Structures are given as structure tokens and as C-alpha cells.
Amino acid sequence: MSRTDAILARLSRLHPKLIDLSLDRLLPLLTALGNPHQHLPPTIHVAGTNAKGSTIAYLRAFLEAAGQRVHVYNSPHLVRFNERIRLAGTLVGTRRLNAILERVEEVNAGRPITFFEVTTAAAFVLFAETPADYLLLETGMGGTYDTTNVVEHPLGTIITPVDFDHQGFLGNSLAEIAANKAGILKRGSLSVMGLQRPEGRAVLERAAHRLGIRPLWQGEDFHGDEQDGRLVYQDEHGLLDLPPPALLGRHQFDNAALAIAAARQFGLPIDEAAFATGLRKVVWPARMMPLPGPLRDRLGPGAELWLDGGHNPHGAAALAHTIAELEASRPAPLILIMGMMNNRDPADFLKPLAGMVQEVLGLTIPGEENAHSAAEIAAAAERVGFAARPMPSLGRALARAAHTPGARVLICGSLYLAGDVLAKNRTPPD
């Protein structure tokens, strides 16, 4: 076990629950650390169900193309914890990460606190101590009681599309979930909203109105569409004719448009050339990502290997559209290699993919005790009409997929599985 892993293991034992939404434990720790959350660069706070990470990836790409220094906070990581904290454009180094984690551990002095709370406190210290022009801050879960929601005066807030996910923590109705996400809205801060379902939008509108906020709404105040292979964006400031996003899928035009609208609404120093450069260079691992390397080499000639960390029905619907686009370009039998955590329903994830899949190969995510077993995933797939079978390992699943000439193989269902795959492929992010 590395020193970092040993520190993180100690921190994970400070609270009996992995998730316990509250700010009561974090605020005293931040006070003891000198209130780093009050000394951050201008902060853009992002909540929502899907597209949070992609929206932040676009904003980072735009800002860096414009010569700005950007901090980023994302979760979860895929391979190494360092991926969660980017300081002025570079992932935090391991020595510096270890030092700040141990410093925060010492200040906390063994008091109960969740893993996400104590590691977010460490990130805030790093962000406050390292000069940068902006901080892009992603919520972990929800909004109102999310650990990141201690930032009182963000430059702006973004709420990406809200859908069903984490119902056990955020509520069983779309209205409840949207109300939780709306907790990041702050009086005096600007806000931009992604495409919303009517029930969720009504809640977000009421929350914004109470705070005196007039958000920009995607599909109403701004539009971004694919036209002749390019992204055509329009708002009250005019039209931009831009290259397509480097990230694959029709939904990425929506995500890129949301980030462009936020950049213009929040007054970020980004011109049309920087938008174009950012769109060409944006990177967001494990989102419909082609996967060259040793794992791809296990498949036969002409086969494709893709990786996607989407794990809820909304993400699966976007995935289905992307697969349909690939199929129109090159028809190929589709084989899913799928693992999923047991707080999600594999059948709900698979339903948007009905009629597209030749076979589902179920996997148990290695090292995750709260994952569905391979047999459970295969059984759930069969219940909703898919041909499926459990597989004992990723290697065996790839070997079975290799028996289908020219297959399009997609590994999907969980970011935890995606991280394991990237590690096995020896292609960790950055």
C-alpha cells in the first residue's frame, strides 16, 4: 500500500458512513484550518445529475486556451486520488497531496468526519494556497448539504440536467432532487441552467426567484446545435460558428453550449479563438472514449473497444444516441461488458439500449464490495430481454467478445469499473 493509500484508508475510518450529508462536521474543521474556503479564486460551482464533469472539462479547456490558470475539483477519481485536485492546470503532486492530507488529519484530531468532507477540506487548503485565476468546483452529491456548498459567494453557478439518481439521499421525486441541487444557488451570483425536465425546471425557477436570480436557460436564452458537423452557438450577444467538440456524442454539443453560455454570462476572458481551441483540445476520460492499447489488442482485427463511465438511465439514453451515430457510420455488432454498483438498477440502465445490443457480459467490479455481482447483472439484463451471461474477469469477457468478428465492444456501467479498466490498460488519466 502506498503512503497516499494508507492516509486515505485512515481518513475513511473516521466516520461509520461513506455518505452523511451535512455541513456540521466540515465547518469547524475549516475554521481550524483558517477558513480556506473564504480565500479561493473566483469560483464556478457546478451541480446536476449528468454532464457536470463534461461541462467543467469544457470550461477548463476554454480558460486554459485563453491563458488562464485554473484549479479544478472533480470526483470520483478513476485511477489515482490525485485526479480529483488540479492546481493551476496540473494534477496535485503526490508529496504535496500526502502533506496536506496529513496536516488536515492532524487538525481534525480523530473527530468523526466523512471521507469526502475531510478530503474536500484538504483540497480547499491547496486551492487557497496556490495562485490561480479561477476554480471550477464540482459538487459530490446533491447541492444543499454537499460538502462543496460552503463557498458563500461563487462567481457563478451552473446546474446541468437534473434527473433521477441517488434517490436514497436526495429524494424520490424529480422535484425533491431538483430542490436539493438548487441549494448551490446564491443571492448575488449569476446562474446558468442546462436543459431541464418540466418538473425539475419549475423547482429551479422558484428557487432562483426567491434569491432574486434571473438564470440563463438552455433552449430558451441560448442554443447550441450541430449544423454541418460544426457547433453553431447563439445567445443575445450573437452567433458563434465553432468546430465540433472533441468529446464524442450529440449530447456533447449541448454540454459545450452550456459551458460557452456560462463563460459569457460570468464574464470570463474567453474570445472566439479560445472557444475554438478549447473545443478541439477538451479531454474528459471514460466518457465514450476509444481505448487503444493492450486491452484492445485482445480483440480481433477490425474490432473497436470503447469505455464509458455512465451509470444511470439519463446517461444511458445519451449513450444510445452516440452508439446509433457510430452504427450509422459503420454497422457493427455491439457487445456490452458491464459492471455496476448495487445502488443502481442494471435493468433501468439497459432499457434505453434495447434492440442495439448483441450480448451483455456481466462483470463484478474488482475490489468493490458494494458492486452487483456478474450473475446479478446478467440476470437483470435477461429480465429485460437481453442475451446475457456472467463473466469471471475482464480478460475472459474480452476473449468472448473476440469471437465476434468486427465487434464494437463497449465497457460501461460504472466509473469504478472505468478506473479499473484504465489501470489494466496502463492508460491512467494524465
TrEMBL record:
EC code: 6.3.2.12, 6.3.2.17
InterPro entries on file: Folylpolyglutamate_synth, Folylpolyglutamate_synth_CS, Mur-like_cat_sf, Mur_ligase_C, Mur_ligase_C_dom_sf, Mur_ligase_cen
Keyword terms, alphabetized: ATP-binding, Folate biosynthesis, Ligase, Magnesium, Metal-binding, Nucleotide-binding
Pathway annotation from the record: Cofactor biosynthesis; tetrahydrofolylpolyglutamate biosynthesis; Cofactor biosynthesis; tetrahydrofolate biosynthesis; 7,8-dihydrofolate from 2-amino-4-hydroxy-6-hydroxymethyl-7,8-dihydropteridine diphosphate and 4-aminobenzoate: step 2/2
Annotated PROSITE patterns: FOLYLPOLYGLU_SYNT_2 (PS01012)
Keyword ATP-binding: yes
Class of the enzyme per the UniProt entry, highest EC level: ligase
Keyword ATP-binding: yes
All residue ranges annotated as the Mur ligase central domain in the record: 46-263
Pfam families in alphabetical order: Mur_ligase_C, Mur_ligase_M
Catalytic activity: 10-formyltetrahydrofolyl-(gamma-L-Glu)(n) + L-glutamate + ATP = 10-formyltetrahydrofolyl-(gamma-L-Glu)(n+1) + ADP + phosphate + H(+); (6S)-5,6,7,8-tetrahydrofolyl-(gamma-L-Glu)(n) + L-glutamate + ATP = (6S)-5,6,7,8-tetrahydrofolyl-(gamma-L-Glu)(n+1) + ADP + phosphate + H(+); 7,8-dihydropteroate + L-glutamate + ATP = 7,8-dihydrofolate + ADP + phosphate + H(+); (6R)-5,10-methylenetetrahydrofolyl-(gamma-L-Glu)(n) + L-glutamate + ATP = (6R)-5,10-methylenetetrahydrofolyl-(gamma-L-Glu)(n+1) + ADP + phosphate + H(+)
Example of a GO MF term: ligase activity
Family: Belongs to the folylpolyglutamate synthase family.
Role summary: Functions in two distinct reactions of the de novo folate biosynthetic pathway. Catalyzes the addition of a glutamate residue to dihydropteroate (7,8-dihydropteroate or H2Pte) to form dihydrofolate (7,8-dihydrofolate monoglutamate or H2Pte-Glu). Also catalyzes successive additions of L-glutamate to tetrahydrofolate or 10-formyltetrahydrofolate or 5,10-methylenetetrahydrofolate, leading to folylpolyglutamate derivatives.
Annotated protein name in UniProt: Dihydrofolate synthase/folylpolyglutamate synthase
Organism per entry: Devosia albogilva
